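To illustrate the input format used throughout this study, we show a single complete record. The first block contains the structure-token representation of the backbone; no residue identities are included at this stage. The design step must infer an amino acid for every position from geometry alone.
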């Protein structure tokens, strides 16, 4: 394959071209400080080569999603997919040769590295018959291939760095041509940067970066000062796909733009200091609610003695006749009592025996017979009440309750709460709510609970790269809405 694109003009106004076929074989490294025009250069390269080759863009800031509007790139929101789904997406991208933009701007840096690493690894692991040529453009490459460990987890760094190393070192035979851009060469892993044979070096001010850029361009160190004098959008290019000698190029115009609105300046508001002070401080403090506490009333000792004597002299009140209940009324009364108990604070933290004793006492006070309602039925009925299932005969709960028949009693309430949320299409209850229902203060116990239910085949827990968790019930074909875990 041999085709050329124009990326800009040299100092004499002559067009500067890039041989796309040679670029696929030799890769490209772009370097420049923030504001030097790296994103503009990458956008020009992508726009001009879009009709010629498949493109895959790793976009940590969401700058390149507008390519989809003009050139038909498929925009993939990395925060919306779990690890396995990202891998399957990448496999289909290689199979169908789709040009895509993987937008990671909704993720934290740790999740960005993991998502990009899994995505690039899946591209790399495609079967041999799908090794079609593709440009893989990675903006802010120092984030995904850091030269040293930073604040991110070691796992994220390992996954991302391994994927970037495979892309630049071994990707050529698989049709993957890495185009990486970085703000600082010193922050980029050397084994990743060293595999590029083409360079476009933009403005940079730090001596260590200027010297390293000059070395890559084959310039003497005393000539490195020229890199500091470059204007925005000007780059020094070298490599088999660009030029055999260093050439200065001013990047040409682009047809798409970033979503970010960049303004040269914005005058401050014209409000007076007093008005701004009022706007900043209005209702700043949270309102404090005053709790009414009645003053204690001290009874007169003589009056208290008289009251006691009067109460002892009074005849005992006659025991009221308790109502008689039929089967349906008994079930309704028991359901009401269970619901009342479930609404009391800290009820799930009480031992089962204590709760059953309290239940039987309440039933006796209302005259409700409990001969057929033993401790086993009470535990399962109380779990349903805690989970908010007031009427077990409701057809909505038939499948869920049948599935719950094999769930241990102590796990039943959290399982039913998750099942209720899935049935109603609501988000999965968070760990704090599940802990309250389970009667524990330990988050680890909740994780073990979910693991047990998942290993038992009752639920499937799915967490995407943005940290949102949803829980599915495969036997019922239901799933909760995704929410932060």
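Output of the design step:
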């Amino acid at each position: 394959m041999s085709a050329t694109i124009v990326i800009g003009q040299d100092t004499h106004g002559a067009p500067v071209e890039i041989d796309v076929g040679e670029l696929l074989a030799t890769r490209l490294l772009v370097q420049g400080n923030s504001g030097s025009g790296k994103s503009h250069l990458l956008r020009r390269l992508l726009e001009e080569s879009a009709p010629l080759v498949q493109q895959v863009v790793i976009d940590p800031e969401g700058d390149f999603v507008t390519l989809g509007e003009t050139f038909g790139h498929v925009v993939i929101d990395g925060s919306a997919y779990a690890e396995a789904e990202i891998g399957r997406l990448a496999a289909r991208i290689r199979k169908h040769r789709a040009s895509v933009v993987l937008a990671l701007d909704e993720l934290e840096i740790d999740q960005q590295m993991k998502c990009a690493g899994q995505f690039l690894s899946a591209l790399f692991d495609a079967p041999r018959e799908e090794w079609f040529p593709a440009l893989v453009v990675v903006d802010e490459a120092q984030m995904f291939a850091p030269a040293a460990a930073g604040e991110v987890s070691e796992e994220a760094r390992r996954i991302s760095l391994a994927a970037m190393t495979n892309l630049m070192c071994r990707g050529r035979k698989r049709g993957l041509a890495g185009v990486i851009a970085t703000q600082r060469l010193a922050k980029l892993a050397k084994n990743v940067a060293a595999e590029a044979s083409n360079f476009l070096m933009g403005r940079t001010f730090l001596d260590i970066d200027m010297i390293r850029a000059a070395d890559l361009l084959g310039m003497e160190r005393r000539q490195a000062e020229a890199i500091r004098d470059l204007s925005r959008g000007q780059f020094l290019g070298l490599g088999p796909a660009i030029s055999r000698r260093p050439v200065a190029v001013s990047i040409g115009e682009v047809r798409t733009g970033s979503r970010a609105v960049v303004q040269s300046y914005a005058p401050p508001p014209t409000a007076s200091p007093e008005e701004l002070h009022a706007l900043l401080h209005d209702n700043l403090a949270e309102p404090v609610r005053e709790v009414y506490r009645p003053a204690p009333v001290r009874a007169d000792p003589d009056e208290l003695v008289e009251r006691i004597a009067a109460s002892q002299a009074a005849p005992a009140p006659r025991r009221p006749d308790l109502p008689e209940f039929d089967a349906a009324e008994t079930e309704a009364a028991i359901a009401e009592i269970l619901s009342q108990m479930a609404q009391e604070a800290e009820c799930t933290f009480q031992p089962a025996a204590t709760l059953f004793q309290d239940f039987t006492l309440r039933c006796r006070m209302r005259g409700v017979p409990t001969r057929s309602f033993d401790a086993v039925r009470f535990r399962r009925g109380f779990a349903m009440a805690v989970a908010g299932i007031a009427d077990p005969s409701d057809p909505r709960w038939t499948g869920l309750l049948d599935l719950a028949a094999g769930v241990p009693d102590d796990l039943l309430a959290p399982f039913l709460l998750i099942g209720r949320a899935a049935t109603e299409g609501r988000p999965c209850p968070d760990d704090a709510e599940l802990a309250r229902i389970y009667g524990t203060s330990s988050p680890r116990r909740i994780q073990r609970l979910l693991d047990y239910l998942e290993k038992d085949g009752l639920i499937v827990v799915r967490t995407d790269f943005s940290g949102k968790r949803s829980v599915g019930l495969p036997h019922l074909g239901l799933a909760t809405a995704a929410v932060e875990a």
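Structural context for interpreting the output: The domain at 4-251 is CATH 3.40.50.300 (Rossmann fold). The mean pLDDT is 83.
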